[in-house]
Amino acid sequence: MEKMEDAEPPILEFKAQNVNPVKCPFSNDSVSFTLHPSSCLHLAGSSGAGKSTLSSYIAGLLPPRRGGRLLRNTLGINIVECKWNTAIPAGERVGMLFQQTTLLDSLTVAGNVCVALEYCPSAKNGKEMLTMEQKRATIKGLLETVGLDYARDGNKRPSELSGGMGRRASLALQLAQRKHVIILDEPFAGLDYSTGVGVAKELERLRREKGTALLLISHEPQFVDIVMGNNTKNPTKTIVDAPMINGDHVSKAGTNTVFLDRRESNDDNGTKSKALRHPSVFGKDPHQRFLIKLLDYFLYSLPLILLTFLAAGLAISMLSSDILRRVDVTDTVLSVVQKEIKPLIQMFTGEETVSPMYTMMINMKVRGMLNTTIPPAKATLYAMGMAKLFVLEIGPLITSLLLSGRIGGSYAGEVATMQASAQNKLLRTLGISPVMWTFGPSILASWVASPLLTLAGTVLALEVGAHIGPMYGIGDIASYRQEVWDAVFVPLRLRGVVSWTENEGWEHGGRSLVEYVSSFLDLRCTYSDTYTDALIEIATHPVCFHFIKSVVFMTVIMGVAEVAARWNSELSTRGVPKVITSSVVGGSLLVIFADWGFSQLLLKRH
């Protein structure tokens, strides 16, 4: 039997050398082995010895063109040989079974196997065109091969599978693709003993009946023995039985284990060439998470905000300037003047007809007056319109709608991912509130970032207007900036403020100190005796209004994101995109509704 196995062409011949003992994770001079059909190689060694690195290279998970160079430069591993049987198509060579269940969460178990079946190399190349009935029969056979029931388990979602069932379903995908070699990276991790034995028996039956070669990485020898079979055809041997050539462990026919010795570091052998570098724990405190979020929200959102406000400022200023330039009331005013002044002239002169000289002089005078008053009026109207529009209306609204996707969506995605991956449950077991862990620092960071971003975008848009207006003949830059300043920083109509202004500071004009101080502390409006109107007056002041709208809009966005992300306590990864979408759409709609409410509040001020 062994002679027949030796005569059968190998599937894979592999050899890697340790070319840099300082960088290489294993201390072996080299590692080499050969895989035959139905064979099982146990790649053993302590954690960090390079098992997953070598298996990832074999599986083609490293960059194909620079994977070998990357290993040589960064880890000191030189891939001498990775020779595949040329009779095996490249797409059917190798598959990999990861520690975690690797299935598409949006499909059932049968759907996952069907996708793998349709994308196997023979199906993609058109060599095999299966009908739907043939596909169903094949899927049924594959699921039964790995120990799953087609009728009972085929319609389950990955989130409904146990650990062992998930491993079996993942294995069925590799079989559907007809992989000749399957790499098993800790396939028994997290499984109880009985489940692990069941998976191990299925793997042993798979390689024995299907001829699939297995490259097994595992720290659980009791399961490894089961996969290897422990019979005369496939004897189990340890590294002690493996021949050594110049210190190299070589796997030949009948040798089932290759052991990688982990390289000792300076700390392992007790020698320290430099001071100990402690790992970072930044992010464990609330203020640290606040800083992380603030930098994220502000720095990554700033280019988006500035570009949007630049475009909005250009569009609105050009449109406004063009409209104001086209507005000409001279002829209308002259016709009105002639109609109204002509009877007066006739009354004073007593003549039935008005002399053309009088008409010409009046027209010249009126034109001169209009040419003197209309351009400054247009410039003032242009500046006030830009200031009111961006400061009171669209500035905070544009920023909030953008941040609904940028900040609200990212926060909802972060929390939903934590929800789906049981991180929130972990926090609860540690006695930490998941809401305070994420929402507290994030909402504070958004309260700081949103007004700053809104301010930056508004200033940019208004500055754009300062340069666009003069290009259309509307005012000049200096007068525009002054008009904008006066429109934004309007005096508060509070009795205390008016008293301060009228008395020019601390001059009390003969009044008693009590009367003088009380006049400054009177916060009622000049037009009302109620403090509600005074509160509205302060809240709707352009500067305060700009800040309050930004904070309120951001609170709405973050609140919606928080509720959407935590609504489903049993959320799966499949539902994360839906959470993000609902958060962005819901937050944006509520922001628009809140903006309408602020507009109604602004009407009360006037």
TrEMBL record:
Official protein name in the record: ABC transporter domain-containing protein
Pfam families noted in UniProt: ABC_tran, MlaE
Gene Ontology molecular-function annotations: ATP binding
Transmembrane intervals: 297-316, 547-567, 579-598
Species classification: Eukaryota, Sar, Stramenopiles, Ochrophyta, Bacillariophyta
Positions of the ABC transporter domain: 12-272
Taxonomic superkingdom: Eukaryota
Keywords of the record: ATP-binding, Membrane, Nucleotide-binding, Transmembrane, Transmembrane helix
Keyword DNA-binding among record annotations: no
